[in-house]
């Protein structure tokens, strides 16, 4: 397919055929990722490819019991990684640094850019993927299962395989609601309502069309999509908990070597 068609045709695939992805194709996908832009060309990331069924069963819980973790033939986890570079620095009598929050952010951006290159290459080859936010939310559990050393943190991950479903593309917010020219132009109330109009209608209808989701919204007394997002899906309490998980894991993985971090200044409340 043409690249633009691949991009426009993206959908999240959660059901997969029981069909192996050849190593040759997997290598092509990974090579596409490796060609992604990288800060200073440091390539401060690592890619963990998981095929082992028993390990995927263990990762299933860490990924919040999402079925594609087990059903897909491959899981790919993209990690911010300064472990490798710090070893290289030591071997070359250079200061061994990159152990702070900024370094983690550089590695996280590198890893995310690589993941999207891999995703596009996979979809262009007829495979499907589904990104999993649980990779970062439960980074500590996933890091332990993947045997990640200090200065390595899982950031993004997706399931990978041949699709066994053809879901319709989900709506996206309109370009005029997302793009700013020259400087950021804040939104009026009227503009916000217009930007989210289609999302409010289609998103709500999607929940109403699935009996289990409809029952959940009715039990919680939810009246609109905004309430679904904040009361049912992404609560303040859950995000605070995930924030603490990430910050504690960053400290454990040697990315918080600074005065404020040592004083506990990163606590999220």
Structural write-up:
The protein has a 4-stranded antiparallel beta sheet with strand order 1-2-4-3, sandwiched between helices. It is an alpha+beta fold and 269 residues long. The protein folds into 2 domains: 3-161, NADH Oxidase, CATH 3.40.109.10; 175-234, no CATH class. It is globular. 51% of the residues lie in helices and 10% in strands. Helix 2 (23-34) crosses helix 6. The model has no long low-confidence stretch (mean pLDDT 95). It has 14 helices and 4 strands.
Morphology call:
globular
Order of helices and strands: HHEHHEHHEHHEHHHHHH
Q: Give the terminus-to-terminus CA distance.
A: 47 Å
Structural class: alpha+beta
In terms of per-residue confidence, which ranges show pLDDT below 50 for 5 or more consecutive residues? none
Main β sheet profile:
4 strands, antiparallel
Give a quick set of tags describing it:
4 strands; 10% strand; 14 helices; 269 residues; 2 domains; alpha+beta; NADH Oxidase
Write the layout of secondary structure elements.
Layout: H1 3-8, H2 23-34, E1 45-50, H3 53-62, H4 68-71, E2 74-81, H5 83-91, H6 101-124, E3 128-131, H7 134-137, H8 139-145, E4 152-161, H9 189-195, H10 197-209, H11 211-220, H12 225-233, H13 236-252, H14 259-262
Antiparallel strand pairs: 1-2, 2-4, 3-4
Helix pairs in contact: 2-6
Condensed summary:
This protein is about 50% helix and about 10% strand.
